[in-house]
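Session log. Operator J.P. requested a structure for one protein chain; no other inputs attached. Running the standard single-chain path with token output.
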Amino acid sequence: MNESVVWLTIFVLSVFVGIEVISKVSSTLHTPLMSGANAIHGVILIGAVLVTGHTESTPTLIVGLIAVVLAAINMVGGFVVTDRMLQMFTGRKKAIARSEDAG
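Structure written below.
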């Protein structure tokens, strides 16, 4: 069997497993789950930088550069989304406190 087919099969199966696992997480646990995922994205970014730094061929360098850019975008985007979610929860607490003070 071709090695590319094996890697593609593993990728597709991991997508299905990921969707099933994430869909089973309750909404109250999504923020801690995203924070943990952001930490993992940071490790992936460091790994991409280290691997790209030790490459000798141009195609590998290009793929490594793309990996570093995508990992950085993923990590920063994750932090932005987590921050927005936390602001959303903080906004609710402030609104509740104001309504209790008025009543």
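Operator note: The first helix runs from residue 3 to 23.
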